Amino acid sequence: MAVQTVENPPMPFRWPIDHGMKIGSEVILIGATYSGQQKQFAVNLNGQGDDVVLHVNPRFKFLEDTIVLNNRSYAGWQKEERHRNKFSVGDAFRLRIEIARFEHRLAPEMVRSLEVNGDVVLHRINLVNMAQPAAQPSAQYPSSAPPHPSMAQPPYPPPPQPIGFGAPPPMGFSPAVDLPYPPIPGLQPNFANEPQWHQRDGSGGFGPPKPNAPYPPYGHQ
User: Which PANTHER family match (predicted)?
Assistant: First the structure.
C-alpha cells in the first residue's frame, strides 16, 4: 500500500493528486484547531477548474456549530448536508476521509488536488493508496539489429571444397597422374576410342579439323 506523508505543512495547504483517487484511497489529517478570525476550517478535494469533488467544512461560529458537506460543479454549489460538529476549538484531532463504494456526486477519479485552509494547524498528512497511472504495454524490439551485408564482403562463408579434390593443375587434367581415385590393377584408360570431331574433306575421308569452319547447310552431305 503506497503512502505519501507530508510533515508540518504551511497553511493554507495545497497538494497535487495527479491521477485521482479510487475505492480504498484515504486522506488522513492530524492537527489541531485554534481560535482564529474565520471560526472554521475546510478540507477540499478539488477537481479540474472550479470543481470541488468533496467539501468538508467544520464551523465554530455562534449558533452554527456544525459540519457542512457539499460539492461544486459547473452549476455551482450543490445541496448541503449538515451534521453535528464533533470538533472543538483548541482540540487536537485526527480526520480520516476514505473513498468507499457510494453513489458519489462526482467520481473520485476526478480529484486533482487536496486543499486545507482556515483556523487549523496540521502536523501530518497521509495520502494512502492513491490512484496510479495506467500501465502502458511496452513494445518489444530487438536490442540491436544485425547490419546489412555489404557488397564487398559476402554475408555467408564460401562453400567448403570437396574432400580429395584440389585446384586443377596448370597444364590441365592428366588421367594418368591426377586421378582422384586409386588405380585398379589391369584397368587402363583407352584413349584410342575418344571421339574426334572432324569435318569431311573432298575425298570422302576424315581430315584434320578446321577451326571456325561454318556448319554445313541442312541436308548437305
Answer: GALECTIN (PTHR11346:SF171)
